[in-house]
Design a protein that fits this description.
InterPro entries: CDO_1 (IPR010300), RmlC-like_jellyroll (IPR014710), RmlC_Cupin_sf (IPR011051)
Number of strands: 11
Family: Belongs to the cysteine dioxygenase family.
Binding site for Fe cation: 67, 69, 112
Radius of gyration: 16 Å
Protein name: Cysteine dioxygenase
CATH class: Mainly Beta
Number of domains: 1
Keywords: Iron, Metal-binding
Length: 152
């Protein structure tokens, strides 16, 4: 007989967004990363094989660059600040502005980029399932993201 561990193993986009919101409401979790410096700062809030939650502090102008999260789906909730997220879906670029309390989700293997476009620091909370085991960076070439390992 095989015994499975209890608990959720596969989170839906809605469940990931709810997890990110839950952690975003925790003042202690959000204050885990102090606004400082010129680079994004990340702090892992929790990790299991099936879920990871991070808080990220974004200085003005900070960007992730184009990337994907491999097999992981994700959700992000903006705690404060003004960001733009660009996603590559169906062969075209889609983008949206994100402000405090806005959320966005990302499906596995979807290339995207997030940038702080505000004058001050931004804070976001991210939830991923399964845990992040791979990320592919992309270069923007000929009006499309191209995986860097495929670009060479």
């Amino acid at each position: 007989m095989t015994t499975a561990s209890p608990g959720v193993r596969d989170f839906t986009s809605d469940q990931l967004a709810r997890m990110a919101k839950l952690f975003a409401r925790e003042g202690a979790a959000v204050s885990a990363v102090k606004p400082d410096g010129t680079e994004r700062q990340r702090h892992q809030l929790t990790k299991t094989p099936h879920l990871e939650v991070w808080v990220v502090n974004w200085p003005p102008g900070a960007s992730t660059g184009w990337h994907d999260h491999g097999a992981a789906a994700g959700a992000m909730v903006v705690v404060e600040g003004d960001l733009i997220e660009r996603q590559w879906k169906g062969g075209s670029e889609q983008w949206r502005e994100l402000r405090a309390e806005d959320e966005t989700t990302i499906t596995p293997q979807t290339a995207h980029e997030v940038t702080n476009v505000g004058d001050g620091f931004a804070v976001t909370v991210h939830a991923y399932s399964p845990g992040l085991t791979e990320m592919t960076p992309y270069a923007w070439e000929n009006n499309a993201p191209v995986a860097i390992d495929a670009a060479s």
